[in-house]
Design a protein that fits this description.
Number of domains: 1
Low-confidence stretches: none
Pfam families: Patatin
Keywords: Lipid metabolism
Number of helices: 10
Distance between the termini: 13 Å
Shape: globular
Radius of gyration: 19 Å
CATH topology: Cytosolic phospholipase A2 catalytic domain
Strand content: 15-25%
Number of strands: 8
Structural class: alpha/beta
CATH architecture: 3-Layer(aba) Sandwich
Mean pLDDT: 88
CATH class: Alpha Beta
Protein name: Patatin-like phospholipase family protein
Organism: Haloglomus irregulare
């Protein structure tokens, strides 16, 4: 890159997917380790559900310190969320086993999270982990004109609309709402409305990330995608059907938003939209490249999280090498 060239403006969107987003943390860690400020400038980062944890942690570490601080926050968050104690490991095994049996078609009793006392304990653990590593009271002052845009996705249960929270509006409750899976956690009340897991909405937020009110707009969008895009053959067993349904539902909003971006890019190239008002945004996906059962999205075993983390580092390495070439 010559001295006259500006660094490429990059926005990163982190798809949600429970424990599978440990893969995203590995991707972000390797990206941060290899980040070249002369080549790239991070102008925004978004996330949904587990992707929101990674997005907020990365953003906070960067705006309060440097890339190493962001890596430390990511490691701290995932260390706190991993199932380590005896009771936590037993609960983790029960939840993943129950989900596996449910996906296989076994008739199991269903219980509302409003009838289970452990719901509040689970939510409090998430909030404690977030507040241990992120000073949310300081977030409004950190949201200056030169810091990256931060976007967290949820769904407004009462109004039936996708809703995002940006920058100073991001709090522990908004991140918790983004991860509030309906059959596991009670809805989270924000601004007078109840919110559920962002997997039902923009997973991850793309439109709000690209249409930020300030400059510079992103030149490239890097999507860290948890749910496999393609499937070879026909899913025939109940397990396979349940897994593929989950993957497809998790990718619906993402693919719709990316098609909209691609359509605008085409119209810009063909001269239908003025380039001084619309920005061409190059799209890149960093995919997991490996298929795991839906039930493992609840699996917080340290060994499993480490496996996903290492896979993320490997996929990020391949992606960055390809970009550099």
């Amino acid at each position: 890159m010559s001295d006259a060239e500006e660094p490429t403006k990059v926005a990163i969107a982190c798809q949600g997917g429970g424990s599978h987003t440990a893969f995203t943390a590995g991707v972000l860690e390797r990206m941060l380790e290899r980040w070249d400020d002369e080549r790239y400038e991070l102008v925004g980062i978004s996330g949904t559900s587990g992707g929101a944890f990674n997005a907020v942690g990365t953003w906070y570490g960067l705006v309060t310190g440097d890339r190493n601080d962001a890596i430390d926050v990511l490691n701290g968050l995932w260390s706190d969320l991993a199932a380590k104690g005896v009771n936590d490991r037993v609960l983790n095994g029960w939840l993943t086993g129950y989900s596996r049996l449910e996906g296989a078609g076994f008739p199991l009793p269903m219980t509302s999270p409003y009838q289970v006392a452990g719901d509040e304990l689970g939510k409090q653990r998430i909030v404690d982990a977030l507040e241990r590593h992120i000073d949310f009271d300081a977030v409004p002052e950190l949201c200056g004109p030169d810091c990256p845009e931060l976007v967290v996705g949820t769904v407004n249960v009462n109004e039936g609309i996708f809703e995002t929270f940006t920058n100073s509006d991001v709090t522990p409750k908004t991140v918790l709402a983004s991860a509030a899976v309906p059959n596991l956690f009670e809805a989270v009340k924000l601004n007078g409305h109840y919110h559920w897991d962002g997997l039902f909405s923009q997973n991850p937020p793309v439109d709000d990330l690209l249409k930020v009110p300030r400059e510079p707009k992103p030149d490239e969008l890097w999507v860290i995608q948890i749910n496999p895009q393609e499937y070879e053959g026909e899913p025939a067993s109940l397990d396979a059907i349940a897994d593929r349904r989950n993957e497809l539902s998790g990718n619906i909003s993402l693919n719709q938003e990316l098609r909209s971006v691609a359509r605008i890019n085409t119209w810009i190239e063909e001269g239908y939209l003025p380039e001084d008002q619309f920005k061409y945004t190059e799209i890149h996906r960093i995919e997991m490249g490996q298929r795991y059962s839906y039930s493992t999205k609840l699996d917080r075993r340290p060994a499993f999280l480490a496996e996903l983390w290492d896979l993320g580092r490997s996929q990020a390495e391949a992606f960055l090498n390809e970009r550099q070439a």
